């Protein structure tokens, strides 16, 4: 009977946790979701307490530090206001991890009060949810200290690394925060590809204003989708005028991803009136979009023209140096130090979004925690991140090797293919031949051909000469090691 009860509890726990996962998945990015949530096992549910098993103590601490708000909101949604989460830590038997059922260490049950959220250090800003905002309709004319601004205190200018890619947007953001509404950057329109820091920047502006002006300014950060949902709900409840009134009382309005207003005529109209009212009263408006105003489809012309009234600034993918600096900063923020080669490797291979750079750091952290690894070296990092960079993996070719080796020795690439017997060129040619054999699948014959039509025996001679030198000369060993790393980095 008690076995039956426990099976039922397992079943319910699984179903509830699966509901939680669906909500969590919508609120955080896929990498973080798969790194931190997929490995969790729901164990049981007793009353309002759901127990989940996490792989390690570190895991538990990480979830509590970074995902507390999301977990709290989710549990309350799925289990109800009294919902609680209890962690159980998996203890692996050293002798045979799989033969025995995992033991559990129950940590003190953490209740989930509905008080002020505590924020996470990475980007999982709990998405604005209508029912989280203290009801703006209770009192016509908003009470300044009652509005939940939806600001994540981790998104601050200090943590936003400046580069050519975002200099204008960042500097303008700081200027706006110093003097909200009373500057010529109104509205401030930031646009750029996904994961390039638009939310981070707008939130930094909000946080700085909150910090410098306190309760004097009503600040609201909201995504365009949530704005639309809230508006629809207000219409449904015959509260459209209260909705408008609440927005007219905001001093700094930040709307993220405005491109999603596209095709929503009623929302656009409402926003048009709010925009005019705020602008006239010298209130600050900050908007973001994934593209420039003129490129957003299905948006009224009168809105597009207003988007261009103030300052429009784009953010782009950071260059290598900025990517490196961002990685260094993210590692510090997460209390971990990586060898410079690892940061170089990530900065070289993740070129499409800052979110992906962050994802790489998280994946390394998660893997080291799961596998209880104290120190991650470059080969290990490469293995762990392999899946994330698969698509961009390039084949190493003899030509690439020639180019990198010649660049290293400061000689023209064609020289290694010519007949010259100059000592420095012979040395570069032999090393390039050696590396071509080691790092490509090319045959001796094909390598010889690509070095100016040389015979395969010349390639064999070059390889054994380099092997001898590596054994006898530290300088050579070092050169070959450095070149190997460079070629591997460039090719992955
Ligand atoms: N210059 C930067 N310095 C430090 N962190 C950055 C920088 N740019 C982006 N990030 C980080 O990258 C992550 C993604 O940034 P953010 O969410 O602001 O992007 P976004 O442009 O708003 O993306 P989306 O359009 O998909 O919403 C965040 O964690 C943010 O902190």
Automatic annotation (TrEMBL):
Residues given in the record as ATP binding sites: 195, 197-199
Keyword Glycosyltransferase: yes or no?
A: no
Task: Give a GO molecular function annotation for the protein.
Answer: lipid binding
- Cite the HAMAP family for this sequence: DnaA_bact
Tell me the NCBIfam families matching this sequence.
DnaA
Complex and partners: Oligomerizes as a right-handed, spiral filament on DNA at oriC.
Q: Which family does it belong to?
A: Belongs to the DnaA family.
Q: What is this protein called?
A: Chromosomal replication initiator protein DnaA
């Amino acid at each position: 009977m008690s076995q039956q009860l426990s099976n039922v509890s397992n079943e319910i726990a699984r179903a509830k946790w699966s509901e939680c996962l669906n909500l969590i998945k919508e609120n955080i990015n896929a990498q973080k979701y798969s790194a931190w949530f997929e490995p969790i096992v729901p164990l049981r549910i007793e009353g309002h307490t759901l127990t989940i098993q996490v792989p390690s103590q570190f895991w538990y601490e990480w979830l509590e530090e970074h995902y507390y708000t999301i977990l709290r909101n989710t549990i309350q949604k799925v289990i109800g206001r009294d919902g609680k989460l209890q962690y159980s830590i998996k203890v692996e038997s050293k002798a045979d991890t799989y033969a025995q059922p995992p033991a559990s260490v129950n940590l003190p049950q953490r209740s989930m009060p509905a008080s002020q959220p505590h924020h996470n250090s990475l980007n999982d800003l709990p998405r604005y949810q209508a029912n989280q905002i203290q009801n703006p309709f209770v009192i016509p004319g908003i009470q300044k200290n009652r509005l939940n601004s939806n600001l994540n205190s981790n998104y601050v200018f200090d943590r936003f690394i400046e580069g050519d890619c975002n200099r204008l947007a960042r500097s303008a953001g700081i200027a706006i925060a110093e003097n909200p509404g009373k500057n010529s950057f109104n509205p401030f329109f930031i646009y750029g590809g996904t994961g390039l820091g638009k939310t981070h920047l707008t939130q930094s502006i909000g946080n700085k204003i909150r910090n410098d002006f306190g309760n004097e300014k009503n600040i609201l950060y909201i995504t365009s989708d949530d704005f639309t949902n809230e508006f629809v709900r207000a219409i449904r409840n015959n509260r459209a005028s209260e909705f408008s009134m609440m927005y007219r009382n905001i001093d700094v309005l930040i709307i993220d991803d405005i491109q999603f207003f596209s095709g929503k005529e009623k929302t656009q109209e409402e926003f048009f009136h709010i925009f005019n009212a705020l602008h006239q009263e010298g209130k600050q408006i900050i908007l973001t979009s994934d593209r420039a105003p003129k490129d957003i489809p299905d948006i009224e012309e009168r809105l597009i023209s207003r988007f261009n009234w103030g300052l429009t600034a784009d953010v782009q993918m950071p260059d290598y140096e900025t990517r490196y600096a961002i990685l260094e900063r993210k590692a510090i923020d997460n209390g971990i130090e990586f060898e410079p080669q690892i940061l170089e490797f990530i900065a070289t291979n993740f070129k499409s979004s800052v979110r992906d750079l962050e994802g790489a750091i998280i994946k390394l952290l998660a893997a080291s925690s799961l596998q209880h690894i104290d120190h991650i070296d470059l080969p290990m990092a490469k293995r762990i991140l392999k899946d994330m960079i698969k698509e961009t993996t390039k084949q190493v070719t003899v030509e690439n090797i020639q180019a990198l080796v010649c660049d290293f020795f400061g000689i023209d690439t064609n020289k290694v293919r010519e007949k010259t017997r100059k000592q420095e060129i012979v040395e570069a040619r032999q090393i390039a031949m050696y590396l071509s054999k080691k790092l490509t699948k090319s045959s001796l014959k094909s390598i010889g051909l690509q070095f100016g039509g040389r015979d395969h025996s010349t390639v064999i001679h070059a390889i054994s000469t380099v092997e001898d030198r590596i054994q006898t000369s530290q300088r050579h060993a070092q050169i070959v090691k450095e070149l190997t790393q460079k070629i591997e980095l460039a090719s992955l």
